[in-house]
């Protein structure tokens, strides 16, 4: 159905929503915040009207829902409310995913000009160690925004879809006995 990750966004954009499909990629269990090693992946909500575009969209959305699960747990544990999410890595170039991430979190999602920040961090650490940069403020001045996505989804829709995501997640529990 999909031969490369580059195809996912275009395929997901052939439909306007997930068609009620939720994909939970628990291929080797569910980790934070569920911690269920005996869970396995599921695709839930299939009907005869579902197309591969719906499944591709559900796969993209799964990444955003998983992020919300972890950030909700972090907020509950810390008492600190998320006001924005700075993202990095290859998936940040998927504009559909980034908009959906902003929608499901209800906060802006911010992509930096240099999206591979792990490598950048290593370079910064080396530069600080060798004296190339004098202090952390020098590094902060290098950070620039490339794009920001603002949430467009209303809170009622967001919570209804999240409820369905959580329902799909429960279908993965205890698959392995």
Tell me what the structure shows.
With 177 residues, the chain is mainly alpha-helical. Helix content is 46%, strand content 10%. It has helices at residues 6-12, 52-78, 95-105, 117-130, 136-142, 155-170, and strands at residues 22-24, 42-44, 85-86, 109-112, 145-149. The protein has a 3-stranded mixed beta sheet. A two-stranded antiparallel ribbon has the order 1-2. Helix 1 crosses helix 2 and helix 2 packs across helix 3. The longest helix is centred in the middle third of the chain and has 27 residues, at 52-78. The relative contact order is 0.17.
- For the largest sheet, list the strands in their spatial order: 3-4-5
Helical stretch count?
Answer: 6
Q: Spans of 5+ residues with little confidence (pLDDT < 50)?
A: none
Overall average pLDDT: 95
